[in-house]
Amino acid sequence: MAIERQSLLLVDDDPLITDTLSYFLDKDFDVVLAGSRTEALARARQLSRPPSAALVDLGLPPTPHRPDEGFALVTELLALAPSMSIVILSGQSDEANARHARALGAADFVAKPADPETLRRILRELLASQVPPAAGATDLLGHSPPMEKLRAQLRQYADSPFPVLVEGESGSGKELAAAALHRLSKRAGKPYLALNCAAISPSLVEPTLFGHTKGAFTGAVGNRAGYFEEAAEGTLFLDEIGELPLELQPKLLRVLENGQYQRVGETQQRVSHARVIAATNRDLKKEMREGRFRADLYHRLSVFTVTVPPLRDRGADRFLLLDHFRHVYAEQSHRTAFSLTAEAETRWEHYAFPGNVRELRNIVIRLMAKHDGKPIGLPELEDELDSDAAVATSPAVTAAQGRDDADLTRLALAQLRDSGHFSLDATLRRWEWAYINAAQQLTHGNISQAARLLGINRTTLYNRIEVLGRAQGDGLAPEED
Known about the structure:
Blueprint: E1 6-11, H1 15-25, E2 29-34, H2 37-46, E3 53-56, H3 68-80, E4 85-90, H4 95-104, E5 108-111, H5 116-129, H6 145-157, E6 164-167, H7 174-183, E7 192-196, H8 202-210, H9 227-231, E8 235-239, H10 249-258, E9 260-261, E10 270-271, E11 275-280, H11 284-289, H12 295-301, E12 304-307, H13 317-333, E13 339-340, H14 342-350, H15 356-370, E14 375-376, H16 378-382, H17 387-391, H18 395-400, H19 405-418, H20 424-442, H21 447-454, H22 458-473
């Protein structure tokens, strides 16, 4: 089935690869090329709307022999456009990298050298699987206590005129919570506009929010209303608010305090009556302490705060979401929904889903494509899970938090009794990998920030990564569960 021609971001620092793939894929996509993470983000933001899909090499400058830049780019592209289908195309094709990329939100992983026809088929299937709002993907699904608490808060705050800050991990569904606040309010029949602050160039945020006059800047060929004006008395959702440039934050604060703003290039005062909802997966209190986010703006945005719970805390909701997505995609792709064996269901129940609902959805898409209508056993399911990332959120790790030495000793005793075989070196390496990976996720791949978060210096972190990488290459890395 033919699909509408859409934009594709191709990110690789090898001109031979980009030239070859763009030649083959240009027949189906508007291909945008980039050779680094910085260039890729800039190109994506220059487009009128973010790319529908991306092919991303893991080994990008300035560290082409490590996957750090590629992992960080996956996180940033999904912050820019949560529905983007990302395929990792990499020579660093070990299974640990593949699983981690998928946990971050990548839809698939293809090892180099890749057949262009295979890539074209994968991209077509992924884009055909993107569910539009009409397919029922706009509701908050789940009946777990954390989700019932979230729903109660949304109902409580829906009709208030004050801002709401929606917090939560990447992929947890913050944009759905924001939409629910609007839908439950008396503003439901009025405009609902959403702006992703990470999706546009910092220099364009102000005219996008507040509008501009003709000639206000290069390219301003006429007067144009901004999001605040177009939202009127409805709702304006500002996603990834932590990306808002520091110099623009006082202007947003002014709108929140008294509704007043000006179009760029205009002296006339205008008044907004829109209700603002903001969302972030960053720790804004930490950003505030480090001078990247204004304290007064944070307190004004967080009059009400709701937290979308991570999937690992939502119990049986993971099965409800499994049923929802497999039936939606089965109907949309004209396939038969797969089933899980008893062993696979047990693994599904205990998997941590570090990428949250987005990761679960992508797992379902891949299983649907590979195992149409078939029962899926533990080996087939395990191939799609990020076992290394799960270490950081496993019951043993979670149980260790906040315990004294005696408690930890008892925990270790229980683990040694229950373990058929145990390796202290392998366990310590897995914990170290897990914390390094977690720190890089939280800091979007910024090594300096990750090192500070881990309490070590930047050089030490690089050395740890290299040592663990060599151990992995020598077969000494942590074994998969």
